[in-house]
């Protein structure tokens, strides 16, 4: 009995002792830890590139939030990826306790989202106690999971946007533009201009802003970037055969741009200097597959470098006829007086080539001062240029010429050289007996006993006498002639007068 009393008395003594020394009140600032991260705010969207808040190591105890973003754990499910973390912890309470509710036990709910798998506002629970300390609340919180990232949320204010700040630790309310120039946080090495939400740096005259947009550096002479219009920067292509007007001849090697090194080119051709802007026929431009530019017009002088497509017109008879069977990247720049093109090979097959110009080759037998392309094609006078190859006579005609030969010669089968005409064997001589051919002519002769007549063609018989008869006749003839002359001369001298008288008398008789 005594023992029992003693026990009861002791028990009362213990109870009395507890009442005398009041149990510690978590509202007492000594009894709780203050958490002040504003990043726990529901208004703070977690940035994936920053370390998330993780309450894995939060020691179970009493905590009070004292944050510029707000001091209460939310009572509704916050979105995931808020509160500076991924998994947001809230309290499933309809309202916070009032001042005389004492310590209220409740559940902290973790809102866990795994996209496409789960979105659970209370994926797991943690035991939480809350007490209303009149001016503030205190919470008994502790870690429950070893995984991260999850954290208790507190407050609802939103961080000020970049370039804005507020007296509320740069959270709403009261966000205002930060004047980085005035606060000296700009980092501008020379001049600073504030803007709403930002700023920019400027430089004094004679300096320029570096790539970091902050530091100004003294100008260093930078070489101007090479201009493809500069004659050192492009290659000149001058084949007039690239002309759209030039029909590719199957017996010629086609132009092939298979080995054209990618670079800037300028056409300087008598046939024209521009790549056509409409689809040329196949088998032109000295090739089979003609490459043109699918542009409505060439660039103007201030368009700079214009990028476009080269289109290859490929024809396979009966199979395909495609004006843009394949493309190649082409750049064009208007250099005022001429265009330059950035061209390069795209295919390993041949024959394809870039076209340039539209002039037409002069027809055979015509030439022009324009490298024998139109305009100005005129007949070539092969006779006077000495290119005819005629052996003797040459006659020019429109677009051609022909050779002929002098009398006594005839034109060879090559229509150029002349060879002696053998009138004797051709039977055209007209000689009645013998015919002797000579270079360029012939003559007739006669058999023995005949002589050539004065027509030089016919022969006639000779009448032969003994030679002494001829001599005798000759002597007699000569003697008679001499005698006659002497007689006449002397008689005329002697009878000159009388002869006249006689003659006059004689005449009178009649
Ligand atoms: C505590 O409860 C009282 C009502 O009893 C209320 O007016 C007060 O706002 C509460 N304090 C907090 C921090 O919720
Ligand atoms: C919050 O608590 C209530 C009452 O216990 C319960 O019905 C409800 O499902 C809870 N909410 C969540 C999201 O778990
Ligand atoms: C500098 O400013 C330009 C234009 O505003 C911007 O594109 C660039 O990213 C900036 N460079 C740096 C290093 O911030
Ligand atoms: C370059 O452009 C100008 C107009 O800016 C134009 O008059 C000129 O003909 C063009 N040059 C060539 C080669 O197309
Ligand atoms: C040329 O370009 C235009 C516009 O891009 C396109 O509609 C047209 O089909 C092209 N022409 C050819 C022949 O590919």
Automatic annotation (TrEMBL):
GO biological process: endocytosis
UniProt-annotated location(s): Membrane; Secreted
Alphabetically ordered keywords of this record: Disulfide bond, EGF-like domain, Endocytosis, Glycoprotein, Membrane, Receptor, Repeat, Secreted, Signal, Transmembrane, Transmembrane helix
Classification via InterPro entries: D8C_UMOD/GP2/OIT3-like, EGF, EGF-like_Ca-bd_dom, EGF-type_Asp/Asn_hydroxyl_site, EGF_Ca-bd_CS, NOTCH1_EGF-like, vWF_C/EGF_Fibrillin
Signal peptide: 1-19
A GO CC term attached to the entry: membrane
Name of the molecule in the record: OIT3 protein
Primary gene name: OIT3
């Amino acid at each position: 009995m005594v023992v029992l009393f003693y026990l009861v008395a002791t028990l009362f003594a213990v109870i009395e002792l507890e009442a005398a020394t009041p149990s510690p009140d978590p509202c007492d600032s000594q009894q709780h830890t203050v958490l002040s991260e504003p990043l726990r705010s529901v208004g703070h969207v977690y940035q994936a590139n920053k370390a998330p808040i993780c309450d894995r190591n939060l020691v179970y105890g009493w905590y009070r939030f004292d944050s510029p973003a707000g001091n209460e754990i939310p009572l509704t499910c916050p979105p995931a990826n808020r509160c500076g973390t991924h998994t947001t912890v809230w309290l499933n309470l309809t309202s916070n306790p009032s001042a005389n509710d004492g310590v209220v036990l409740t559940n902290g709910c973790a809102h866990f989202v795994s996209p496409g798998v789960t979105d659970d506002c209370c994926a797991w629970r943690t035991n939480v106690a809350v007490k209303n300390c009149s001016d503030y609340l205190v919470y008994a919180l502790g870690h429950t999971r070893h995984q991260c990232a999850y954290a208790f949320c507190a407050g609802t204010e939103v961080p000020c946007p970049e370039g804005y700040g507020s007296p509320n630790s740069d959270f709403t309310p009261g966000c205002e533009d930060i004047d980085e120039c005035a606060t000296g946080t700009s980092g501008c090495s020379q001049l600073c201009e504030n803007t709403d939400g930002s700023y920019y740096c400027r430089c004094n005259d004679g300096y320029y802003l570096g790539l970091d947009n902050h530091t100004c550096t003294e100008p260093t002479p930078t070489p101007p970037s090479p201009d493809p219009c500069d004659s050192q920067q492009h290659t000149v292509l001058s084949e007039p055969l690239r002309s759209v007007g030039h029909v590719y001849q199957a017996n010629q090697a086609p132009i092939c741009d298979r080995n054209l090194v990618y670079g800037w080119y300028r056409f300087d051709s008598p046939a024209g200097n521009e790549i056509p802007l409409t689809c040329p026929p196949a088998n032109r431009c000295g090739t089979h597959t003609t490459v043109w530019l699918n542009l409505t017009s060439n660039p103007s002088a201030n368009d700079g470098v214009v990028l476009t497509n080269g289109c290859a017109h490929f024809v396979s008879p009966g199979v395909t006829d495609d004006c843009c069977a394949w493309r190649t990247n082409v750049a064009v720049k208007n250099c005022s007086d001429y265009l330059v093109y950035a061209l390069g090979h795209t295919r390993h097959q041949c024959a394809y080539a870039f076209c340039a110009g539209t002039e037409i080759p002069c027809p055979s037998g015509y030439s022009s001062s324009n490298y024998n392309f139109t305009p100005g094609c005129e007949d070539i006078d092969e006779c006077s240029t000495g290119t005819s190859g005629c052996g003797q006579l040459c006659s020019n005609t429109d677009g051609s010429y022909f050779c002929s030969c002098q009398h006594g010669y005839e034109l060879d089968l090559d229509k150029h050289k002349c060879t002696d005409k053998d009138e004797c064997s051709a039977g055209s001589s007209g000689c009645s007996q013998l015919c002797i051919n000579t270079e360029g002519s012939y003559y007739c002769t006669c058999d023995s006993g005949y002589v050539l007549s004065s027509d030089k063609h016919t022969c006639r018989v000779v009448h032969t006498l003994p030679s002494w008869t001829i001599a005798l006749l000759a002597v007699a003839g000569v003697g008679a002639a001499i005698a006659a002359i002497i007689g006449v001369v002397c008689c005329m001298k002697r009878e000159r007068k009388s002869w006249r008288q006689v003659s006059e008398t004689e005449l009178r008789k009649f």
